[in-house]
Queue: 3 jobs
Job 1
Amino acid sequence: MTKKNALLTGATGFIGAYMLDELMKTKSHAKIFVVIRKVDQFNNPIKRLEEAYGHVLLKVIN
């Protein structure tokens, strides 16, 4: 079976974080692209993703 790419929006929210975790556990996708809100002085979703998934390849595109 050919692995497919996945696009997930809201990956730092409650449901999105759960879905991202499940997608990463199954390893059934070639790449997982996530869309998150922008970084501001009070919120850094990129840092949260790096802390949670720093053990896997994480590429940030601005």
Job 2
Amino acid sequence: MIIFTLYVTYLAMMKKNFIVILGILLSSLGFSQNFSVELKWEDEKLFSNDYQKMKSPYFNEENFVIHPEGRLDFVKQWEVNQPINEASIQIVNPVFETISTSRLLDLNSDELLSSINPVLSNGLARDKRYAMLRLNPIIKESGVIKRLVSFDVSYQNASNFSQNTFSNQPITNSVLSSGDWYRFSIHRTGVFRIDAGFLSSLGINTSNINPQTIRIFGRGGKAMPFTNAENLFFDPEEIAIQVVGENDGSFDSGDYILFYAVGHEGWNEESDTNINSYIDNTFYYLNVNAQNGKRITQLNEPVGTPNETIDTFLDFQFHENDDQTPTKIGRRWFGEDFDVENVQTFPFEFPNIDTSRQGRIKVNAISTADSPTSMQINIDAAVIDILNFTSVGGPIVARADSTNSLFTPTSSTMNVVLDYNNNGNPASEA
């Protein structure tokens, strides 16, 4: 059983110029706090779980976070007596050292940002206040890769706070508790159009509504965090929409609604999957005739001379069928069986691909065999990696292996070929 994701870099079909707008953020008044940090780097450490193996440079264990897509975070948490001003964070005297691309090992150079982007946040756990700092320890500046060696942190306590700053959210009624609501579903992320016919299919008499009062609510189909404390939202939120033809106060046959909705597909770092396994459809809620709705506002395009041109972007496609879980327990689901059809091919197409840049393929697979087996991963004729599964037995009912490998694309079309070697045992399954 397998799931996999393929990343490549595109040449953009059209070049788009951007203007970088700089601003100054002034810290609010409060007591200043300072401390210093040193990152003690090691050249290589292997990280693995049931589904993935990855080699990475390494630093202080208590501050090190590695993500499945091949990037690192520096994270530091400490106890505080009062809330901090999150906007006051300053990284002072940063010291970097230049490293070669080869020293990234399995890290994805395309995930590197051009700055450390420090983020300071407040937290509360077991009635204790905490501050947490998160930043990028490795950056790519003008094509040069640098890693952070040391820095000083400066921030300020929040002014004008009360002991109730982090009190529990009061009990309130849902926005859905009153009024007439109409539920509809979407299947994927994108911009959607609703016309008079669709509204009628929901049971709405379009001749009796003021289109300016049409409202749509929802939060998309992404999976909620596993930890309850990380679920920050109580209710669906109103999203901004565009209602074409609403100015005359009637919803006519040629009028329509445009809005952006988020489906249940998309990379989830916590579960290491591309699909929310708990739902098949994403629901949104429509309300009319209560009050004027939230609308998309027009932004003014910046004027001036662009100082950066972007002509490539990172794109990805995935193949994931969450059909079965051989172990019958846990949150991990898999797709195709390789017990009968040992060799299977999965075609991908990336138009206008940039063949000068490397791609990355991730494959997760599982085997339930009582003897060692393996799976070879090819892209067209090139062998990318071989997954190895040791035998099961006793309390071990399945073995997993994975790859997160670089490859060089040669054309816009490519075939991923997975070849399972059952080691001569027809009862082996993968």
Job 3
Amino acid sequence: MDFLRLPFTCAQESAVMRRRAADLLAGQPAELVQDVLLLITELVDNVVQHTDSGGELHVVPAAGTLRVEVHDHSRSFPQLQRPDLRRAGGRGLLLVAAIAQSWGSRPTETGKMVWAQVDLA
């Protein structure tokens, strides 16, 4: 499986990223593909909603795992929060935490990187 790296600036591009990731994951179980595509959607949408500069998506296969990374220029780190039941949104990180075996964020030289990892087996 190859490494995928795609820059983005707007939410409409998440559909392109999902198609490219689905191509990369061809042959993997359908449930895994759907989980990874949902992780991509939520992480990219968070960048689009909370920053003004877009970012870059990396899908990184490693021994038995797949890591979805989103790099952006913001220094503000995501925090899991209790969702407001009166609002339609605000559940993205809860979905990421529920789907991924692990997730987190770290500072980079130009902002931050938020990642989520799933097992391939």
